[in-house]
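Quick log. Single chain, no ligands specified.
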Amino acid sequence: MRVIFIIFWTLSIFVFTCTANFSELLASGAVHFEWDAHPQFTELLKPLPVSINMDFIIQKIGHLTAFFILALLLQTKVRSKFEVFIFAGFYAILTEFLQLYFTRDGRLFDIGIDSAGILLSLAIGSFVNARNSKEISHS
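-> predicted structure:
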């Protein structure tokens, strides 16, 4: 059953990151993909925008949250924190790369934000596991 949740969440991340118009997806639930067979890979290197607005902040919180949840789900199935980090990190890189093919903006700094969500999830998971171990050993 855990694997189903992981698959569902990875597919959800794919839809959210690769749909042609994220605002339209949120407003109407419409999923629409556009394919660009020749993306500009230099887009990955673009810096943060000069003016940061609330939509930008909400998108970055979404990145952090999506990969935080993915890492949490993976921790229920995979015991190795390193394997969780590698799988979730690879998926973060993959989705940013794929966004270029789906006429979206893929950015390296988004991979950093995704990684922050993964690391936060792993840290909380380690804290909870350590706390549970102490409670069990004191019982």
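Residues 50 and 56 are 11 Å apart (CA to CA).
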